[in-house]
Amino acid sequence: MVFGCKTSVKPMETKDHQTILDNKTPTFIVNSRGDTIEKMILTDEEWKARLSENEYHILRDKGTERPGTGDLLHNKEIGFYACRGCGTLMFASSQKFESGCGWPSYFDVLDSTMIVKSTDYILGYPRTELTCAKCGGHLGHVFEDGPPPTGLRYCINSASLDFIKSEH
């Protein structure tokens, strides 16, 4: 992933309202096509105004919806899945599969540069967490037990995504 910096940017606040953005923190990313995309940097108050309480809990507090409850779990329509926080396209319906895990699952992403992977130990063991590269919203996790051709299972919270139906 390629990152860039700006010299004058609006600070981003964390939960304890400490400024974490300075002149050395990347404020834009370059996607796999070479497009420069500015990161979406909002305060907690701005996020709370944009998102429902559940969406905020999942996207900003790294929560998880209960298995089997997400509105996109059984969606079979043709289209695309975008980050609910910023609208970045993440998955295509052709990448979705039924994993039986209780969350929408995908075997690949549209653009790997738009997803940031990190390790979390919230359950006491390492898992690969996925966040949106543009807005930092928590999407879910990826596991190495998916189908071919990737062998991956991107296990994503429905509340982290919006579905955009294809018009064809």
Outline:
With 168 residues, the protein is mainly beta. It has a single domain (2-165), classed as Beta Complex (Metal Binding Protein, Guanine Nucleotide Exchange Factor, Chain A).
Order of helices and strands: EEEHHEEEEEEEEE
Number of strands: 12
Roughly what percent helix?
under 10%
Radius of gyration: 16 Å
Cα shape: globular
CATH topology: Metal Binding Protein, Guanine Nucleotide Exchange Factor, Chain A
Distance between the termini: 33 Å
Counted by DSSP, the helix tally is: 2
> So, the CATH homologous superfamily?
Peptide methionine sulfoxide reductase
* Weakly predicted, low-confidence segments: 1-21
CATH architecture: Beta Complex
**Overall pLDDT score:** 87
Number of domains as seen in the coordinates? 1
Largest sheet: 6 strands, antiparallel
